[in-house]
Amino acid sequence: METEVGHEVARALGQLLKRSARTWLYAGLTEGLGEGVDEVTYPVLSGLARTGPCSAAELAWEVGLDRSGISRRAGRLESAGLLRREPDPHDGRAVLLVLTDRGVEANDLLRRRLVRRIEDSLAEWPPEEARAFAAGLRRFALEGPFAEPLA
User: What is the C-alpha separation between 11 and 18, in angstroms, rounded?
Assistant: First the structure.
């Protein structure tokens, strides 16, 4: 049975998942970070921070881009000294993408900026509502339709 709550959540998710909304958010977060870090490379940098060293194909799956898009963006991050490529110790034919120390620092700064932007947007909310929202969103992400199936 469909409910208004389900429709409301679906509309909100549609807004959050729009490419234009993500691009606008990433552009604001990456402003002033210099060569290589922008709204285009942000998903690769942050995705690699989440996954740790991995191949371009694995990262493509994680961030929702194709392998060639990952490779182009990784090349920009590599030129900026934020990422390096290393041989995969388990597969001599494969290459892993790895964040450099500078890449880790850039991602940490981006994460702090994102957290600050979220906290600023919730500043007018009563604290108990903000905490309930955070708990509900976390539960929805872990248990809802976007949750990864258990192996």
Answer: 11
Taking the C-alpha atoms of residue 100 and residue 97, their distance in angstroms, rounded to an integer, is 10
**DSSP calls for 15-61:** HHH-HHHHHHHHHHHHTT--TT-STTTHHHHHHHHHH-SB-HHHHHH
Query: pLDDT tens digits, residue range 55-99?
Result: 999 999 999 899 999 999 999 999 999 999 999 888 888 899 999
Confidence of residue 151 (pLDDT cuts 50, 70, 90): low
Residues 27, 38: contact at Cβ < 8 Å? yes
Indicate the residue type of 121: S
**Please, are residues 81 and 102 in contact by the beta-carbon 8 Å criterion?**
yes
Alpha carbon of 150 to those of 5, 142, 145: distances in Å? 26, 11, 13
Helix (H, G, I), strand (E, B) or coil at 67: helix
Tokens of 121: 């947007």
Backbone angles phi, psi at 88, to 5 degrees: -75, 120
pLDDT of 43 reads: 93
